[in-house]
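Cross-check.
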Amino acid sequence: MSVTTKEITPAFNSEVTNAEGGQHLNGCFSCGACSGICPVSQAISDFDPRKIIHMVRMGLKDRLLKSDLLWFCSQCKSCVFVCPQDVRFAEIVQALWDMAYEQGYITDQDILDKGKAAWVERDKCVSCLTCVRVCPWEIPKLDAEGVATIGVRDCKACGICVAECPAQAIMLNQSQDEILIAACGSK
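Predicted model, tokenized:
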């Protein structure tokens, strides 16, 4: 990866460490425990928690916050449990996601297009509450009109509500990581 000086934002490391969830970033000494256990890393070789931390430290703010790479993290938190330095990579990723939203690098529609959140087709919803009952994170809610809504920034894109909705009112685009994983398995 070649880097030009105009790509570097020197204050990016401080910006991340001062953000909620980013305070443990500087504890990382790149041991690789997170990369070794990360299921996404196993399927998508370009995704490496150490690489993302290195990009933060290098000040590659625009490159990282514009990158699809950042959105591959599934937030399974396997990395958190194996880190000897308590870096909490999943929290760092959440802080980076928040920055990307707040600073206009990504929109809710981008997240839907990437297949990182489900949405409800309002005219198909029958207000049966199935999605509300089956979501382990309690993300779907009913609005004032009794129609299910799903918070784009909260949805984990697990697909449970999509599979269980009897009216087939909940949609989820195929994510880029699913496409890549499928391509790895096909000859």
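The mean pLDDT is 91. The chain is about 40% helix and 5% strand. Passed to J.P. for a second look.
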